[in-house]
Amino acid sequence: MFHTYRAPQTEDGWIVDVSRGQAGDLLIRATFQIPDDLDPDTIASHGRFASRSRIARLGIDIRPLGVVEVQDRTASLTASVRAVVPQYKIEEQLFEVFVPNLPVGRLVVCDPGVCLSSERIFADYSANAFKLPQGFSIDSMGRFTIHPHKLVYELDRTPSVEELQTILTRPDGKALLNRLQIPHVVDNILMGPGQGVITSCTMFLHRHFAVLESEQSPLGRHMHAVVLDPVTTRGPRVFLEFFNDSPTPIVNPTATGFIYAANKLRVKSSTWQGMINGKAHIETRSAAADYAHLSALFSTAELTEGRSSYLERAVAVVREPLESFDPAEPLRWHRPVLGESAGTLPRIGLPRVVNPTSGISAFGTRMLEELPAQERATVLIQHFPNLSEHLDLISAAQKGKIERIIFQKASFEHGPFLSSRDHARLADYADLGVDVLWCNDVRRHLAVHVFRGHRGFFCELDAVDNFKQALVIAVYGSSRELPPVEARRLRRLVKALHDFFGDDLAIMTGGGPGAMQQASTFARDHGLLVGASYLEIEDQQTNQLAEFYQVFQENCRHSRQRWFEIAGFHIFCIGGVGTLEEIGVTLTDIKLGLADGTPLIFFGHRENGLYWQPLVTQLQQIAESGRGPEWLRTHVLVTDEPDAVIAFYKEKLDLG
């Protein structure tokens, strides 16, 4: 059993009407569907409009005019829309992008009954339940005040109408905005009369959500992107958007607001979701029972041709894979069909230049053509699909014939490792709403493929929700074990990270032996989630500790590093050339804006001093010569003291 946390809210509402006000300003009417778990009366009395973050980050303020109107299970409101950051130069484009059906934001229930008092805020803060920026204050009413970073975000150029539409409507629109919006360090944040500014702060919210005030104050008005959610509000780029409604300048605006306890939702480990007699159902079973049951199903394929033959790519279809197997009606397994001109098919061990599909006229997935549309069946496939099988599966998924794929072996030639093409195919299945599960004989468990952001991992069934909301810290290091004194330091560091960030934490490594396994073991000892990005290389045997993982063939070494993007922090322990390569990729990602510029830690000591000191000295020289960003001097720490790591995080993240 697991719990997750979220704010009580509607989904994004959308524009239903656009008009011009008497002064020529832009007015919109937005509609919101109230979900079954929210009371419409509560929405009417305690509902607060929260604009989408990407809208506010463009310097666009959506200001409600009047109260939220509720009828049955539909809410609506009228709002004005204005561009308040003159430097962004997008005011003339508003009428072209704010059109009917544009999602604009949600309604969030701000129940006074779960609003934290000043005593409760300080108690939870002291217990590391959340992190607030340095210099925060709390008044007697439970209102907090925070100061933003001394940063101002400017657009690299004025976006076109097409780019604005992409930012506001497409799932990957925020990535485009991240590329266009560049932070600049300032001594003071200055807002002239009638002007706005985009800045940021550092916060960590795990089980609470914060609601900012948006009324004018002597230190500025915050735009209506007012809700900071649990889980997604974590890190150094929590955006704050201010506007000066006064006739005089404002220097260094502050944000005020209240903290609420998020809804605690109990989540059961659901293995399957499908239809029985036309009704949706979720059946919960043990992971061990699921694995054993599916292994028995795969064993009925009876591989009489020998497991090394490419002909043994067996495929079968079942309606309900958890139903008991009836020996009197065995599964019908389908295998590749040889063409008339086919010779002997290659076996494992032959040169890879040989095309193993030559001579095959059809694969077992061709039988999917026989399925009726909207059957929503489950496909059992012995090996992860190749190109021909993938095309058949995609075609079946588009017609609703299948809703789930369960495979047993990752690769015919590479054992338990997937290729870069395989990862692209996993993304295709996710786009079509097809679940992919791995009946993993190496791990002897059943894992489901789950995306976090743009990266997918195989996850143990009872760890899925934990994986989705954990703060991930990547720990890199050698495949050789750390000496005992260094291992003790690493254990203390893992404990310090747990104490500082709390229980909602995961440690992710390369999944190998040595320092990686030690870090994973220490994390497991503290009850933390463990993840891995496994790589097929000769000098690295994979450990089996990860509860979420991904696997990569040897020619995917560089693309494999992309899966570390889910990590919010990076720590480099004593390592060799492989660790040095990972350092270079991480530094480049931060330089290019592909990863957040969180502090980098180089951890460990050898006989002649701090292990990574020469490298850090070189990085400082690169920055001093203008060949690297300034954060190489300011946000890189080399140490062997766990307490120094936590102090460095607090200082550089501007945390209280």
Compile the SSE list and pairings:
Layout: E1 2-6, E2 13-20, E3 26-33, H1 40-46, E4 47-51, H2 53-57, E5 60-71, E6 74-83, H3 94-97, E7 103-109, H4 118-126, E8 130-131, E9 137-138, E10 144-146, E11 151-155, H5 161-169, H6 173-180, E12 181-185, E13 190-191, E14 196-205, E15 208-212, E16 221-222, E17 227-228, E18 234-243, E19 250-251, E20 255-261, E21 263-267, E22 272-276, E23 279-283, H7 287-299, E24 315-318, E25 337-338, E26 360-362, E27 377-383, H8 387-398, E28 402-409, H9 420-431, E29 435-440, E30 445-452, E31 455-460, H10 464-469, E32 471-476, H11 484-501, E33 505-509, H12 515-525, E34 529-535, E35 548-552, H13 557-560, E36 569-572, H14 577-591, E37 600-603, E38 605-606, E39 609-610, H15 613-624, H16 631-634, E40 636-639, H17 642-652
Parallel strand pairs: 27-28, 28-29, 32-33, 32-36, 33-34, 34-35, 36-37, 37-40
Antiparallel strand pairs: 1-21, 2-3, 2-7, 3-6, 4-7, 5-6, 8-14, 9-10, 10-20, 11-12, 13-19, 14-18, 15-17, 15-20, 16-18, 22-23, 24-27, 25-26, 29-30, 30-31, 31-35, 38-39
Explain what you see.
With about 650 residues, the protein is α+β, with helices and mostly antiparallel strands. The protein has three domains: about 1-265, Deoxyuridine 5'-Triphosphate Nucleotidohydrolase, Chain A; about 270-275 and about 285-340 and about 360-465, Cytidine Deaminase, domain 2 (3-Layer(aba) Sandwich), CATH 3.40.140; about 470-650, Rossmann fold. Strands 24-27-28-29-30-31-35-34-33-32-36-37-40 form a 13-stranded mixed sheet, with helices on both faces. Strand 27, helix 8 (about 385-400) and strand 28 (about 400-410) form a beta-alpha-beta unit.
